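Checklist before submission:
- one chain only
- standard amino acids only
- sequence pasted in full

Submission:
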Amino acid sequence: MIDTKKHPISIIKVTPVELSIKANIEPNNREKLGVIPYTMSVGHSDYDSSEKIIGVGVKLKTGKKDEPDTSDLPFSLTVELSALFKVDEENFPIEHIKDWAVRNAPLIIYPYLREHVYALTIRAGFTPMILPLLEVPTFKLENKNTSTSSKVS
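Returned file contents:
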């Protein structure tokens, strides 16, 4: 059995903000996708210390960053998700919450994003678009009670 420890920040909910796909080619030409370029953006709310929550959003759009026209691609796709996280302030230093929201929270939301991208493309009759796995960086915090450091991710 893997020794696990509960993280001091927990995900409360993940809500779709936008789920859209528009086919740009005929149904009988949808078997092979090739590489579909996409961009991802991330944003977060301010930390609400009274509720002990922070919101983080992730948006994926097909196409290149500087080329908003996606009519030359097999489809135009947008998936935008919003997640809400609850923070245990006794076990997570609030001065690091912004860094955590920028670096770690998107990686927590990413599997939900991958599932929606996969589901939308397959339901529209395309070979499913599978987003790649990402490397997870380590975020280290010095434990206030001891001189050893602990990993928080």
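Reviewer check: Strands lie at 9-23, 38-44, 53-62, 75-87, 139-142, 149-152.
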